[in-house]
Amino acid sequence: MNRGRLSRLERLLKQKGLKSAVSCDPSDILYFTGMRAEGAYFLFHRGEAGLFLNSLYPRDKKWKAPGSALKKIKLGKTGIEPSKFSLSSMAAFKKMTGCQIVHTEPLFAKIRALKEPGEIIKIHAAQKISMALCSGMRLKDGMSEKDAVSYISSRAHELAEGPSFEPIAAFGANSAYPHHSPGAKKYARGKTALIDMGVRYKGYCADLTRMKGLFNIKTLLGRAYGAVKKARDMALPHIAPGAEIGGIARIINDYLAGQGFEKNILHSAGHGIGLDVHEWPSINCRERAKFEKGMVFTLEPGLYFRGVGGVRVEDVYVLEDKARVLG
User: Measuring CA to CA, how many Å separate 212 from each of 70, 129, 194, 225?
Assistant: First the structure.
């Protein structure tokens, strides 16, 4: 168990008036225990932590089987993050313990959002590998989106632990869909292509998006690309400890709307990143939480035009006294 991380969790629970919290999220379990496990419960209760595993995993005296062991613990109000629990897991835990479930977010996610120096080093390394892979990729006439994704995945396994998520290659009008599923569409020289990819290095994720083929700034996509870069550059100086996260998203969205692109904004302006490629916080206009030193996050403003294509820029940043790009 990582005692420093557990101490931070205990302080956060006290702030929320709780003495217990539970997660079955594999990345939460890895973060606090050093072991990745599916179908397990990580329980923090009155200053002590326990991992309750099913019979698929080897156990020693530190790791206990659920069921009878959980029934012996007298839990009161117990915090969970609903987004990380299936209804069946939540019901099973409540039945085993008889506890009162308290929905609270962020909880474990807030602890994980503040990265330690060693975590930042790993994310930085993952981002550098990803940038080198992407910049070295040469799209050729006749290459399909699936060919491009296959190349990225193969190289990610050669250079790191593999992709941090399923890569996206979207050519031409297909880039109008932020989560396009790569298919048979072929690349043609001079046409636009959107590449969204990242590698996993020592357990930590990278994420970047690059556009290829945007040579004419007078076209719709060329103007949109200039706008998303300008919006990002306008927001960056305002990111500082204590700044409202939602306020940064509003700077980006207000600028894009002012350029006539309000209807073409389809997703948030960014997200946290670490053991998972998408972590708290989501950088959206509704987020009231504040930026804190040690947060690592992406900025990824994008604009999308059905039947034409889409543009997105994405990089990873760490917040020190100001935001510093990683890579």
Answer: 54, 19, 6, 11
